[in-house]
Amino acid sequence: MDISNVPGGTSGLILFGVVAFFAVVLVVVMIYARMYQKASPNEVLVISGRGTEPRLVIGSGQLVIPLFERVDRFSLETMTIELLTPEVYTTQGVPVIIDAVAQVKVRNEPDMVRLALERFLSKSPMEIKEIVKQTLEGHTRAIIGQMNVEGIITARDEFAQKVAEVSSRDLANMGLTIDSFSIKDVKDNQGYLAALGKPRIAEVKRDAAIAEANAARDAQKAAAGASQEAEVAKIEAKTRIAEKDRDFRIQQAEYNIASKQREAEADLSYDLQKNISAQKVKEQEVQIQVVEKQKQIEVQKREAERREVELVATVRKPAEAKQYEIQTLATAEQFKLKTTAEGQAEADRLTGFASAEIRQKQGEAEAAANKAQGMAHAEVGRAQGLAEAEVIRAKGLSEAEAMVKKASAWSTYNQAAIMQMMIDRMPEIASAVSAPLAKTERIVMINSGEGGGGASRLTRDVTDVVAQMPAVMEALTGIDLGDLAAKLPGLMQKAKPEIQTASPAVARKAAEPPIALEGPGTNS
User: Full-prediction pTM beyond 0.85?
Assistant: First the structure.
């Protein structure tokens, strides 16, 4: 049968051939991959068989023919060996226990690897560790027996170095090397190490306590110094603050004093100027008052001179007409007495008014002058002196004139003068009589109900005392005031024609009541 004549036969053969080729290639690849063995960096492949020396593959790959060759893997990783010896006696006979740790591995050299493979290829990692542990323990115990406890404790690095040096030779024969060997702990079950450390512990504790005390002392000293410095700094700061506050208060006080001083000076200047102005005004007022008083005194003086001329004329007329002497003297006496009383009263009033007014103005002027530093004291004193001198002079003239006329009248008309004097003194006598009663602070009135009068009785008693005054005067002087007073109208009646022919001033004076009494306790 011809395959080429079959439809699709050629293409099918080609596809089959391709598939078969790829299948063969895949099988070859799979077989090759199965036969190829790779080693990691920390292991070694041991290929043996075919009657040749084993091949060692470290960190690479190798083709291994199944059935003809064998592959074994051996780890090159570091092994940690925990070593805990039993009690081993030192040179002092003290049993100690050493707790150590070692890092052991296969040296990465062909000869060393071959030695390790010869001894450990068929063993598990645990078995290898046990072999290494026993080797290290033996050498450790041997070295412990050559040292004392203090040396082991104080020279652990030297002890570990000796163990590593001694064990390295045996381990090298097994293809192994020690990377490190260190002592973790040294123990004993007899308390030797604890007793050995107690003096040092006590010494260390003592030193620690001393150091701690010294440190605490230094700390306290430093703290005290720091606290003292802080307190000093605080006090200095407070001192500076107090000084600044003091300076501020002083400056403020100085400013206030200066301000108040300026205000006081301004007020004083204002008051001084005001007082000066007021003093000038008061000076003008005083001058005006002085001028007025002087004019009044001048008027009074002229009036006195006029009265003097009139009296002289009145007195001289009786010499010319003897028949009218008694009437003229009576009229003159009457006019004299009235004029004297009025002049004296007016002079007294003017004197008192002027003195009081002048003293008031003087006081005001003195107060103003004291504030104005005594600028007008002399002027006020001068004005006061002039005014008082004028008043005294006028009063003296009036009193002298009155005394002259009174003496002349008494020489010609003794009884009338005596009567006038007695009448003038009666108010004083009545006042003296009633003075004790006036000084009485409290009067208790008791009415017995028998018609005593009560409060009205007191008034009646006082009136009776005053009414008895003429009788008392008559008993003392021998002069009957009633008879003497009754003679005055007859004398005036006889003198009427002469009075009518006299000057108008003398007639006016003679027409007035014969006696004009003023004062408390008198009747007109």
Answer: no
